[in-house]
Design brief:
643 residues, nine-stranded antiparallel sheet, 20 helices
Length: 643
C-alpha cells in the first residue's frame, strides 16, 4: 500500500491572465499568493505539509476582469486533479500538470521524511535535537542583504543567519485543526429584493463581491454557495425572501433548511439564519410581512428547529429620517414604532416573546445596529456550537474571523485559541520542550494572525520580515526601565529617518536583519523565556488591533506593507508599548497552583483603555502622515534611505 503524500509547496507559472488562485484539499481552502518577484507566478509553501487524504485536489482560479465593460464577468473556474494522476506524474518529489498553458507544480516531502500528524492536546511531542545555548552576554548578528540572500513569502528577505525552519510537525497551529473542521461561517440571508441584504453583508464581512440582491425577484439560488476571495471565512446562501403572491419560495426555504439540518458534517450545516424585513414607514402603505412570511414564522420551530435565527429589521435610517421630519418633538417615536409595528407582530406570529431581533442600518454615515447584530450572532453561535471541553470551537472561530467590524471579538478569540493550547504552561515549557524559541513563536504567531483574518493575499503578516519586526520589538522588553524608547516627538523614526507626509514609510534596516541569539535557543525552563513569550503575544495583538482600525475603511482592499509598517511604528516605542514592557518586566510568577503567566497575558491583552490607546495611535498616524495612501504597497525597507 502506497504511503500518503504530504504536500509542501505549490507553484503556478505562466499565469499572466490570472487574478487569484485558491486551493482546496481535505475540505479546507488556502489562498495561493502571487509571487512578489514574478508577476506570472503564484506560489505557496506549507510550513506544516498537507496530507492528501481525498481522491482529488482542486484549484479555484479567477481570471482577470475583462477590459470591455460590455462583457459579463467570468465565473471562477475549478481545476480538479485526481490523486491517481498526481501519483502517475510524480517524478522524485514533484508532480507537474498543465491547464490552459498554466504550469502547475506540486512538491511533496520525500518518503523518508513522512511523519505522523500532529498529536492531540496532552500528548507528548517529538523533540528536535537541542541547539547550543547562548552565553549570558548575547550578541546580535547584524548584516545587510546580499546577492546570496533568498526571497521568501510576503517579499521577505531570508538571511543566512536566520534560524532555519525547524521540524514543526509537532507544533501544528490550533487554528489549522479548527479550520479543517469548519473553514467558513455559513449563513443564510432571507429577504426580498431591495431589503438591503447586499449592503448588510458587504459592510459586516468586508467584501464587495457578495451580490446577494438579484436584479429581478426569483433569480437568487438558495443552493449556491456565495464566497469571496476577499474573505475566505464566509459562505453565504441567499434567498429572495417572500415576495407578494409567491408562496413557492416558502417551500424552497423550508426544504433547504431541513436538508442542511440533517447534514452530519458541521461545516455543511447552517450556522445562522438572518431573516431580513424592511422597517415599514408609517403612511407609506408598506407591510412588514407578506402572507408567505407570516406562514413561515408561524411554523418557524418546525422548519428551523434549533438553527440559530435572528430577525433583522433593515433600513433603520429611513425610519429615523421620517420621524425627524414628521414627529421631531417626539424623541421616543422611533423606538415606539419599532416595538409596536415590528417587534410585537413578529413575537405574535412566532409565539416567542424572546425571539432574537435587531434593527440595523448599513447606509454610510448612518450605520446603526451592525455591531449589535455581530455580537448577538457570535453569542448564539458560541452557545450552540462550543463544546464544554474546549475554550474555542470551530464554528465560533470561523464566525469571529468572518466579521470585519469588531476587533474585540478577534481579541477574545485569539485569547481563547491561545488558552486552548500554546499559551498554557509557558513557564514550564510543557508544549514546547525541545523546540527552538523561533519555532515556538512561529506557531503562536500563525494562530494569532489567522484569527484576525485580514485580506492578505500576499501573506505579508506571515512573512519572515514581519516576524523579524516583532522579534526585534520583543528584544526591548529586556531593556532597563530607564532606557525604554520614548514616543517620538521630533517627527522622526528610529535611526533619524524623517517622518514626512507623502514620503515612504521607512523603517531602519536593522529592524529586519538583527536578531538576538535567543531566537535559536532551545526552549526550556530558563529565566526570561516566559517574558519573551508574554511580550511577543501582547505586542503582536496590539499591533494587529491598530492595523485593524487603520484599515477599517479599506473594504475589500488588499493589505499592504505600507499599512503594516504604519501600525507597527505607531506602537513600537510608544507609551503603550513602554507600559506593556514595564508591566511584563515587573511580573513575578508568585503561584504554582494556577497558570499565572496565562492569566497575566489574558489580563494585559483585554485591559481597560485598550480602545482609547488604539484611537490615539490612529490619530498619531493621521497627524504625522495625513496624506498617506494605505492602498499603495511599498517595500519593507528603503535601503538607500536607511543607509
Amino acid at each position: 500500500m502506497a504511503l500518503p503524500l504530504k504536500l509542501s509547496y505549490i507553484e503556478l507559472q505562466n499565469a499572466n491572465n490570472i487574478e487569484s488562485v485558491d486551493f482546496e484539499l481535505n475540505d479546507a481552502k488556502y489562498t495561493i499568493a502571487r509571487n512578489q518577484e514574478r508577476s506570472d507566478t503564484f506560489s505557496k509553501k506549507f510550513n506544516t505539509p498537507l496530507t492528501l487524504e481525498t481522491e482529488s485536489l482542486s484549484f479555484i482560479i479567477s481570471r482577470k476582469k475583462q477590459r470591455c465593460p460590455c462583457l459579463s464577468p467570468v465565473d471562477p473556474e475549478i481545476v480538479t486533479i485526481r490523486l491517481d494522476d498526481v501519483r502517475s506524474k510524480l517524478n522524485g518529489q514533484e508532480s507537474l500538470h498543465e491547464w490552459n498553458k498554466v504550469s502547475i507544480k506540486l512538491r511533496f516531502l520525500p518518503q523518508t521524511q513522512l511523519t505522523d500528524t500532529a498529536p492531540s492536546p496532552g500528548t507528548t511531542l517529538s523533540k528536535k535535537p537541542e541547539a547550543s545555548m547562548p552565553t549570558t552576554e548575547q550578541r546580535d548578528v547584524t548584516r545587510s542583504p546580499s546577492a546570496h540572500d533568498t526571497v521568501g513569502s510576503g517579499g521577505a528577505t531570508v538571511l543566512p543567519n536566520m534560524p532555519a525552519p525547524g521540524n514543526r510537525e509537532g507544533l501544528r497551529p490550533t487554528t489549522e485543526e479548527l479550520f479543517e473542521q469548519c473553514p467558513r461561517f455559513r449563513v443564510l440571508v432571507v429577504g426580498k429584493s431591495g431589503v438591503g441584504k447586499s449592503s448588510l453583508i458587504n459592510r459586516i464581512f468586508g467584501v464587495e463581491t457578495a451580490k446577494v440582491a438579484p436584479e429581478h425577484p426569483g433569480e437568487a439560488d438558495i443552493e449556491r454557495e456565495i464566497t469571496s476571495p476577499e474573505n475566505n471565512r464566509l459562505i453565504l446562501h441567499d434567498s429572495k425572501g417572500f415576495e407578494p403572491g409567491d408562496g413557492g419560495n416558502y417551500e424552497t426555504v423550508k426544504s433547504f433548511i431541513e436538508k442542511r439540518r440533517k447534514m452530519s458534517d458541521i461545516k455543511d450545516q447552517l450556522h445562522a439564519v438572518w431573516l431580513c424585513f424592511q422597517i415599514p414607514i408609517p403612511t407609506h402603505g408598506e407591510r412588514l410581512l407578506e402572507d408567505a412570511a407570516e406562514s413561515f414564522l408561524q411554523v418557524r420551530n418546525d422548519v428551523l428547529g434549533n438553527t440559530l435565527t435572528i430577525v433583522v429589521f433593515t433600513k433603520h435610517d429611513r425610519l429615523v429620517s421620517f420621524m425627524r421630519q414628521r414627529m421631531r418633538n417626539d424623541p421616543g417615536a422611533v423606538l415606539r414604532h419599532l416595538q409596536e409595528d415590528c417587534i410585537q407582530p413578529i413575537q405574535e406570529f412566532t409565539g416567542d416573546k424572546n425571539i432574537a431581533h435587531v434593527a440595523v442600518s448599513s447606509k454610510l454615515k448612518h450605520e446603526y445596529g451592525l455591531e449589535e447584530l455581530i455580537r448577538l450572532t457570535q453569542e448564539k453561535v458560541s452557545k450552540s456550537f462550543t463544546s464544554p471541553e474546549n475554550e474555542v470551537s470551530a464554528v465560533p472561530l470561523a464566525a469571529a474571523g468572518a466579521q470585519r467590524m469588531l476587533p474585540t471579538l478577534k481579541v477574545d478569540l485569539s485569547i481563547g485559541v491561545g488558552r486552548q493550547r500554546y499559551w498554557r504552561a509557558l513557564g514550564s515549557s510543557a508544549n514546547f520542550q525541545g523546540y527552538t524559541i523561533w519555532d515556538c513563536l512561529h506557531v503562536i504567531h500563525t494562530d494569532i494572525v489567522l484569527v484576525w483574518n485580514f485580506y492578505d493575499p500576499c501573506q505579508y503578516l506571515d512573512s519572515e520580515n514581519f516576524r523579524n519586526l516583532m522579534m526585534n520589538m520583543v528584544d526591548k522588553v529586556d531593556a532597563t526601565a530607564g532606557s525604554n524608547h520614548q514616543p517620538s516627538r521630533s517627527g522622526t523614526l528610529d535611526g533619524g529617518v524623517p517622518l514626512v507626509a507623502l514620503a515612504p514609510v521607512m523603517l531602519p534596516l536593522s529592524a529586519f536583519v538583527t536578531l538576538g541569539q535567543w531566537v535559536s535557543a532551545t526552549y526550556q525552563r530558563l529565566q526570561g523565556v516566559p517574558t519573551k513569550f508574554m511580550a511577543y503575544i501582547v505586542d503582536l495583538t496590539h499591533v494587529l488591533e491598530i492595523l485593524f482600525s487603520l484599515t477599517a475603511g479599506m473594504t475589500a482592499k488588499k493589505l499592504t506593507r505600507t499599512a503594516i509598517k504604519l501600525a507597527y511604528k505607531a506602537y513600537c516605542g510608544s507609551e503603550w508599548m513602554n507600559l506593556t514592557h514595564t508591566d511584563i518586566r515587573s511580573f513575578e510568577c508568585w503561584s504554582t497552583a494556577r497558570d499565572v503567566v496565562l492569566d497575566k497575558i489574558t489580563s494585559m491583552i483585554s485591559s481597560d483603555g485598550r480602545e482609547a490607546r488604539v484611537s490615539r495611535a490612529i490619530a498619531s498616524i493621521r497627524e504625522s502622515m495625513p496624506s498617506v495612501d494605505l492602498e499603495k504597497d511599498e517595500e519593507w525597507v528603503d535601503e538607500e534611505a536607511s543607509q
